[in-house]
Design goal:
Number of helices: 10
Distance between the termini: 21 Å
Order of helices and strands: HHHHHHHEHEHEEHEEE
Helix content: 40-55%
CATH topology of the largest domain: Rossmann fold
CATH class of the largest domain: Alpha Beta
Bound molecules: S-adenosylmethionine
Radius of gyration: 22 Å
Strand content: 5-15%
Length: 272
């Protein structure tokens, strides 16, 4: 990798806010005060229409988030958060549903607020395409953030001569992946944060993450992956780094694989 590509990757990494939940919380609190106080003092009659007040609060929160340069999806979250809370409250659901729903969300999405990699799954066609990229000889494959593990289960069934390792930190997807893959001897599911996992032991590393961690992942891959090993990123290229190959998967989402050799040496993985 050239010095310029390294600098570009580092620059992108440095722009990532470390705690995106904090500005979101600030936008919600400030807009609650900014809308709530004037309504209470000057227009208390408006309290009879809580949905209208919630909509107003949502608009102010979204404007604040935009001013704070939050990512676009935060604007939609701010716009909808209070109005949705008002609507759901009207449904008079049992009180225990709230903490249960929250618990499930936390167990599935875990530290998504910080790492900005939500759970969505690779298509069947992606799994098939990845299968065709495996070399004829036995090899070791790592899925960084394996979700419910279905991609690895498919590969493990088709290639009993290879070893597949999935690493996932969100408790529910990890548990699902672990239980569903328990009968496959060549599949191992680890509950770990992949940033703490050395990448030196694999022939192919697959990542279906988001744009947010790609620069950091690139730097880690360059440091740790062994010569000849291949990094395949589903959908998200590494900013500022030219891929060695770009492969169209031909699924409904028009997925592309971005293929890299971070350690530079010739790979034995078929890239086309
Ligand atoms: C987009 S999903 C991809 C799931 C699976 N690899 C697939 O292709 O179907 C990304 C997964 O990575 C997990 N993840 C994100 N950051 C992680 C980390 N630092 N350590 C372990 N898992 C992580 C998320 O919890 C999520 O389940």
């Amino acid at each position: 990798m050239g010095a310029r590509q390294h600098r570009t990757a580092l620059g992108t990494l440095n722009r990532e806010p470390r705690h995106p939940l904090l500005p979101a919380l600030a936008a919600q609190c400030i807009s609650l005060v900014a809308v709530g106080v004037p309504v209470l003092v000057f227009l208390p009659a408006l309290l009879a229409q809580p949905l209208l007040v919630a909509l107003l609060q949502g608009v102010v929160a979204a404007l604040l988030a935009r001013w704070m340069r939050a990512a676009p999806w935060w604007l939609a979250i701010h716009l909808g958060f209070m109005p949705l809370a008002v609507i759901v409250r009207k449904l008079e659901l049992p009180g225990w549903l709230w903490p249960l729903g929250l618990l499930l969300l936390v167990l599935v999405f875990w530290r998504n607020d910080r790492n900005r990699v939500p759970l969505y799954l690779s298509s069947r066609q992606s799994a098939e395409r990845l299968l065709r990229m495996l070399p004829d000889r036995p090899c070791r494959v790592l899925d960084l953030g394996c979700g419910d593990g279905r991609l690895l289960r498919h590969l493990a069934r088709e290639r009993p001569d290879c070893r597949f390792i999935g690493v996932e930190y969100a408790p529910l997807p990890w548990l699902w992946a672990r239980l569903a893959g328990a009968s496959l001897a060549n599949l191992e599911i680890l509950r770990r944060d992949f940033w703490n996992l050395p990448l030196s032991d694999y022939d192919l590393i697959y990542a279906f993450l988001s744009p947010a961690p790609m620069s950091r992942l690139w730097l880690k891959s360059c440091r740790e992956m062994r010569p000849g090993a291949t990094l395949v990123s589903n959908s998200f290229p590494v900013p500022g780094v030219s891929e060695d190959a770009r492969i169209a998967v031909n699924d409904r989402a028009l997925t592309y694989f971005y293929v890299y050799r971070p350690a530079g040496a010739r790979s034995t993985i078929a890239a086309t």
